[in-house]
Amino acid sequence: MAGSCESFLLGTIPLPGEGMVPKRKDLKMKNNHFEPGRGASFDFEKLIVYQKTMELRLIINPITANPPRKSAHLVDHLDRAVDSILLNVPEGNGYPMGSGKRRTHFRYALGSAKEAASAVNALRAKKHMNDGVGSQARSLLLEIVRMLEKMGR
After folding, report:
1. Which of 6-15, 24-33, 144-153 comes out lowest in average pLDDT?
2. Contact of 140 with 117, CB cutoff 8 Å
3. Which of 67, 63, 59, 47 is nearest to 138 (CA)?
4. Highest mean pLDDT pick, 1-5, 11-15, 78-82
5. Predicted structure pTM score
6. Other CB atoms within 10 A of residue 38 CB
């Protein structure tokens, strides 16, 4: 159950005249990972690909806040590519299953994930991203790309 959408459900609340309904939580950060929080959530927030991208966003935030002068263009590109994933996944998820528009937005997100990976590689090669952050970002991007490749079919 760990790592699945079901792992983000807190429990169940019986409603009058109905069966058990899952009680959802919002996402929150704990130890560099998103975990459920209290309150309502959007459907796309339950997608593992979205959660992994939010983790990536938090990992690269320190770099985007203070980009190295000689690589500011790469950091900006990485920043925009990650934002593109975060925006295209929910938009695609809003369309019906099997919809061409749904696949199109997931493919846009896939392209952005590959751009982000390339920017991470370039920043690491220029020694403007430390190996710890770079390997974390790369690992997350590999997972994100694999998921988006399946979602975009």
Report:
1. 6-15
2. no
3. 59
4. 78-82
5. 0.73
6. 11
